[in-house]
Structures are given as C-alpha cells and as structure tokens.
Amino acid sequence: MSDNNDRYVIGVDFGTLSGRAVVVRVSDGAELGSAVHEYTHAVIEERLPGTAIRLGPDWALQSPEDWRDVLRVAVPKALAVAGVSASDVIGIGTDFTACTMLPTTADGVPLSELHPDRPHAWPKLWKHHAAQPQADRINAVAAERGETWLPRYGGKISSEWEFAKALQVLEEDPETYHAAARWIEAADWIVWQLTGVESRNVCTAGYKGIHQDGRYPAEGFLTALHPDFGGFPATLGQELAPLGGLAGRLSEEAARWTKLPEGIAVSVGNVDAHVTAAAADAVRPGQMVAIMGTSTCHIMPSDELAEVPGMCGVVRDGIVPGLWGYEAGQSAVGDIFAWFVETSVPASYAESAAEAGISVHEYLTSLAERQAVGAHGLVALDWQGGNRSVLVDHNLSGVIVGQTLATRPEDVYRALIEATAFGARVIVETFEAAGVPVGEFVVAGGLLKNSFLMQVYSDVLRRPLSAIGSEQGPALGSAIHAAVAAGAYADITEAAAAMGKRTPNAYVPDAGRADAYDRLYAEYRRLHDHFADGGLLHRLRAIRNEATA
Q1: Whole-angstrom Cα distance, residue 127 to residue 208?
Q2: Residue closest to 97 by CA, chosen among 237, 275, 330
Q3: Sequence-distant (≥ 6) Cβ neighbours of residue 338 within 8 angstroms
Q4: pLDDT tens digits, residue range 47-74?
Q5: What is the helix (H) or strand (E) element at residue 273, kind and residue range?
Q6: H or E element: which one contains 35?
Q7: Which residues contact 152 (CB under 8 A, 6 or more apart)?
Q8: Which residue, 434, 437, 429, 533, is CA-closest to 152?
Q9: What is the largest CA-CA distance in the chain?
Q10: For 229-257, what is the mean pLDDT?
C-alpha cells in the first residue's frame, strides 16, 4: 500500500451537460483536484447545429466533439489544480450517461461528423425518447414469442435503449442505418478514443444492449421486427470486457489531448450510475445506490437472481464481477424541479431569492420545508419525463391533483419533491416484493446537497439514508476502476474499501412524518395505478405530436 501513496489516477465523468475530471490518490481515494468543462452544444433538442433542420418531439442529441473537449480541457486543468505531476499518474477511467449511442464507421468516426445534416447520424442521448413506438413493438413481439430475456428487464425494454434507437433509425433513415459499421455506446466510444482500440463493456451491453447469457437477441426475433434488422448485433461487438479490466493503453494522440503519459492504463468503460457504487463503497449485496441528479438511477448488487417487474434489468457482473447487478430508475427528478422553476415561478419569488442571496430552488425549499406533511393538499405523479420504473413508458406525463386558487408555488414544489420520493418507494417495494431485499439505501448525486429533499426521502421510505462522501461520485468511481485496471488493487471490492466514501445513517426518518406520508403515498399509488395504462396520457401526447408536427 505504501507504493500507492505517491501514485494517482484520474476519473472522468461525462454527464448530460458537462464533463468533469478528478485527480485521486490511489492509497486512500483523496480527491486532490477537479475541473469541469461545459459542453458547447449541451443537449441538442430543437435543431441541428449550424442548420435550419428541426428535430421532432422527444429528440435529444449530443456532439462527440464536446466529449473530446472534456479530455483536452478538463483533464489537464484538474491535473494543474491538484498540483500532481503527470508522471505520477498510473491510469485513467471514464464513465458516461448510459443509452447515449452513436453510429460510426469501422474505425470509429461518428457519422454525424461525415453527415452533419442528417439527424439520425448524430449520437442519441439517454433522454431521446422518440423511439417509444419501436420500443412498444419490440416488447409486444418479444412477449408474443416468449423471448427468455424479456423477464430480466422487468417485462419491458425502454425507448432509451440501443435496440429501440437503432430500429428507429432503420425505419426512418435506412441510408444512415446501413452506413453504420458500428453502433456503440458513448461509454465505449470514448475509451476507443483514448486507446485507439475498440472494446465493449459488460455493463452497457447487458443493461442497454439486451445481452444475456452470452448472446444478443436471436436473428429470428430481430427480423420479425424488420427484415433488415437481423444483422444489428454484428455492429455491437461480441467480446465483452469485465468492469475494472484493462481496456488498453493511452495512445499517443490521447496523451497529447490529456497531457498524461502515453501508455498508462485505461480502464474498461462504464456507466455513470453503476460506477458510483464503488465510490460509495456500496458494492455488496443489498446496498442500493440512488444516484440523484437530472434523473435518478437505482443500482444494487445482489447474490439473488429474480425477475423484478418493471426493472431496467438484471445483469451478471453488471456492477461488480461475481454478483448480479440490478438497475431501476426514474426518468426525471432534478429535471422536474428545474422545469417547474423555469416555467411556473413568479418573478417576485426570483426577486426574493436574489435579495436573500440564494437560488430560486433554495428559496422554494425554505418555504416548503415549513409546511406540515399534507398541508398543501396536493399529490403529484413524477412522470414529466415519462416513467422508467416500474411502468417503463416514456409516453406517460406528469399529473398534479388538488390545486385550488389558494395553491402557491412552494406547495407545488414540495408536492413534486414528494412525488419523486413516492416513485422511489414504488421501486424499493417492487424489489422487496420480488424477493430481492434492500438492506441499505445510499444516496449520491447533485441532489444530495438539498437536506430537506433527503429528509423527505428518508421519511417517505421509512428507512435511514446513507450518503456518499464525495461530490464527484461517478468520477471517483471511474478513478477507482482505473486503479484496479492499473494493478494497484486486486479487484473493485478491495479498491472501493480503500478509496470509496460513505456516511451511514446520514438521515433518519421521523416516525410522525413517516406515518403522515403513508397516507399521501396511498393516494399516490391510487393515482399511479389509475393512469398506469397510459390511455388518457397517451391520447394527449398523440394530440400534441400531431399539433406540433
């Protein structure tokens, strides 16, 4: 271990709006310096950059050049902030938003850089939900054929995932589909950029690429969806690399970008949520990590294999080698709060927040937390971004019930916070009803800084919350994986114990509030189950799409 005191690794987290790099000491996980680079193009939702080409409803794209810029800008800056010599860095690890998928040439050139005027040539971000019709058909055909992989994904695959997105491209732009020699998750593409060697990680392949028991869905199933879809798995790569493994060595070009030594270890790609489990030292069975930001992803290792309804998936070795890894999620959490503040808060509230020297979110929170549970008379469904778990339907939409002429912005804001907590409780209860116990609920992500929100979650869930000890959970997790890939630790569990950080029982439920929330949760479940079939909400979505086409 003494050899690790003067050795460092770098973790790079590619998020929805920015990428961040952190320099971490191998011996104890100390974070010595970090830097953030905001994406120039952010999320491309309305029109293609530099063109008048408009995108349809529920589209969300990104630019690969923004990702390269993170390597060029954030990594050298983090190193400078840390005051660490590049010669002491032994490895670099990366993580990405899952379901961010791009078509490329055989040597990894994004088709968007060859055909910038074709929307389907661009990488589709996780929040691209325009492939819901394709996902619906995949689910229907899989259920009809009795495909054995379907129960491992809770009975439905998501419109966010690889197969639905690729099928959308095939049906709407077959020329682009057939021009793609590779379809690759950005998590693997960025590692390809760093090493010059193509690799595919077991995590994204399992959760987002329907890879189970050593294979992708059968050709017969795929051709039942579309005659030209049978060869799609050939573009995904067949050899999967284990998490914490060595993907390759830093190439000469990538060394120039990052200002790191050529030849250092590059770990196998990973997903931002899944890699955070290592950062929280929560890689043992029953430790559920909720990574709460714009959306929430729930990750949990287990030694039990079960079919949990509405889950995003269960994958062998999907979080740490040797265990089953479960994933669930909520499509929008922080995004819901941001939407409300941007669209529904009066100017007077913004002025009061400015006078107090705080954000509008903080101001609304300060008003909302003064209320007794249920005093606002509201209950809401947290479906403004659709429902990822347990209904797996991104054509669902938000509902707020109980508003009167006396309803104030802080009432709605609190009801939205509570709705996301109720959604998390549905997920936990669904796991436990399926025989997969949740022993510890660990919170990570940007929303951890809102202590009122955390207390609401503890009260609603009726259980203590543990808290990750880092503000850079994914980047720290990627650094931990880099340490394993570089040979500093034998495996992820050993590295997480040395470098991960977690505070147990950071929030403890209040019995009185928990009892009051049980009553509100019962109403949430009634509302949830009433609108779950999507009938009314789907009809409204169809009317909107027709009106805006």
Answers
A1: 13
A2: 275
A3: 294
A4: 999 999 999 999 999 999 999 999 999 9
A5: helix 272-279
A6: strand 31-38
A7: 212, 307, 313, 314, 315
A8: 434
A9: 66
A10: 97
